[in-house]
Amino acid sequence: MAARLITKSGRVTAYLPNLNAAVNHFRTFSTHYLKDQHITLCSDESSNGNIKYDISPELGPFGPLDKRFPLPGHVGLKNNSVKTTMVTQPVLYREPVNIDEFLTKNNLEKRQQEVFQQAQEVIEDQFLGEPSPGDNLECIAQQCPDRLKRDVQDLFPERDLKKTNLTVIVISQKTTNDMSGWSEEVEEERENLLAEFNEAATDICNVLMEAGYWADFIDPSCGKPFLGPHTNATMFETDERYRTFGFEIDDLGCCKVLRHHLWGTHSYVGCLFTDAPLDHPFISAMKAKN
Fold this sequence. Notes:
Elements: E1 4-8, E2 11-16, H1 19-35, E3 40-47, E4 50-56, H2 99-127, E5 137-143, H3 146-152, E6 167-174, H4 184-210, E7 215-219, E8 224-225, E9 248-251, E10 256-259, E11 267-274, H5 281-284
Antiparallel strand pairs: 1-2, 2-5, 3-4, 5-6, 6-11, 7-8, 7-11, 9-10
Helix pairs in contact: 1-4
C-alpha cells in the first residue's frame, strides 16, 4: 500500500498502515543511505606495477576520523613511497553566455517552479487530506518554532535547543476503542500501543543517532524522555503543548482527552524530537513499503 504523503512548508505528513511501516522506512532508508556514502579511491602503484584501489566507505562524512586524512575534507599528506597517477581532462570549449539572458531565464524558471509547487500543495490538500481505509497511522514531522523550543527545553536540560535545529515527529495511531472512556478492553489496547510505540520509537531514534543526529522521544506512560537523563519535567498526551501540533484537548470534567483531527478520541499519540532537519531524506522521503 502506497503512502499518502503531504509536504507543506515546515511540515511533512505521511499516512501509513502501521508502526512497522514507519520503522521499516527508517531502517531501509538508513541502509541505502550508508551504501550511498562518499567513497574514497586511493590508487597504489608501489606493488610490482599493479594498481590497487582502497575502497573505504568509512571515509564518508559520518565515518570515524581516518588518521591518514587529518586535514579538512578528508585530505592527507603526500606519501613519497606511494606513486600516484593524475589523470587530466581536456577543457571543453563553451559558447560565451550572456549574463542578462542567463539571469532572466533562471528567474523565470524559478518562478515557474514556485507556482507549480504552490499548485501541487493545493491539490494535495484537497485530495490527499485524509488517509486511505487501510492507513491506521499518521506521522507528522514539523520544525519547532522558537517558542516551542523554549517550552520543551526543560525536557532536555542537557541540550541547548535554542542554538540548534529541532524537529518534532508526532505519531498518531488509530485505535479500536474510544480512549476517552475506561474499560478492560481500553486498558489492554493502551498497554499494547504503549509497548509498540516505545519499541518503534527506540528503533527510529537509534537509526537517527547512527546517522550522526541526536534523537529522543517522550514515553507516553510517564511523560518523560525515554533515552535522555532524568528530569522532573513532563509532557503527557493531554499537555497543552500538543495544541501546537494540531490537536484539540477536551476537558471532560473528571479528565482531559486528546482529540485527533481525523480520528477524534480513537487515537493514541506519541512524539519524537531530533535535530535532524526536516528536509533530510530520512524524514522527507517517508513512505510505506508494499
